[in-house]
Amino acid sequence: MTTLSLRLPEELLQDIDLHAEQLHIPRAAYVRKALEQMNAAVAAEQRRVRLMEASLKVRAESMRVNAEFSAIEDTPHA
């Protein structure tokens, strides 16, 4: 495991210590968990953006196909 050194505002450190104590976990475990959750949130947002971009790429084609089906439904014997 690698060591990380960082500077934190005193108020933030006090909040970290308070919450870690309430959860009965060491400060380092609390900070690791917070970083893991942030990484997961960022990864989820990146997935959401990629899916949205992919959806927009196929949207025009989907609309064209829907129009074809609509035309068939409107004139089934044509």
**Terminal Cα span:** 70 Å
The major β-sheet equals: none
Tell me the total number of β-strands.
0
Quaternary organization? single chain
Rg, rounded, reads 26 Å
- Mean pLDDT across the residues is 91
Order of helices and strands: HH
Strand content: under 5%
Apparent shape: rod-shaped
As a percent range, the share of helical residues equals: over 70%
Helix count equals: 2
In total, the number of domains comes to: 1
Which spans have pLDDT < 50 for at least 5 consecutive residues? Answer: none
Structural features:
78 residues; mainly alpha; 0% strand
Write a structural description.
- By secondary structure, this protein is mainly α.
- The chain has one domain (13-73).
- Helices cover 79% and strands 0% of the residues.
- The protein has 2 helices and no strands.
- Helix 1 crosses helix 2.
- The longest helix has 48 residues, at 27-74.
- The model has no long low-confidence stretch (mean pLDDT 91).
Summarize the helices and strands and which ones pair or pack:
Layout: H1 10-23, H2 27-74
Short summary of the structure?
The chain has 78 residues and is mostly helical. The protein is built from two helices and no strands. The chain has one domain.
